[in-house]
Amino acid sequence: GQIIAEDTGLGLTRTDDLVIVQVVQQGRSEAQKQAMYRALADRLHARTGLDPQDLIVSVTENTREDWSFGEGVAQFLEGRL
């Protein structure tokens, strides 16, 4: 497959090294998310040389009821986790 990741008018230059990170989380503040974006960009650049312009991060929020870790069971709701 192929993803076309345009700069969305922000003046970003993408390369074939593009990385997309999908984060599923609950209860993080706006400031915590912004800190995560910066830390991911900084660490990936430091450790792999990835240009921060080649990093897209998407956060999806959910709740405990949105998880099943197997067996068709909502472990959080049943108190198993």
Overview of the molecule:
With 81 residues, the chain is an alpha+beta fold. The chain has helices spanning 30-48, 75-78, and strands spanning 19-25, 55-61. Strands 1-2 form a two-stranded parallel ribbon. Strand 1, helix 1 and strand 2 (55-61) form a beta-alpha-beta unit.
Which properties best describe this structure?
81 residues, alpha+beta, single chain, elongated, two-stranded parallel sheet
Oligomer: single chain
- Number of DSSP strands? 2
Mean pLDDT: 92
What class would the helix/strand composition place it in?
alpha+beta
How are the secondary structure elements laid out?
Layout: E1 19-25, H1 30-48, E2 55-61, H2 75-78
Parallel strand pairs: 1-2
What's a concise summary of this model?
By secondary structure, this protein is α+β, with helices and mostly antiparallel strands. It contains two helices and two strands.
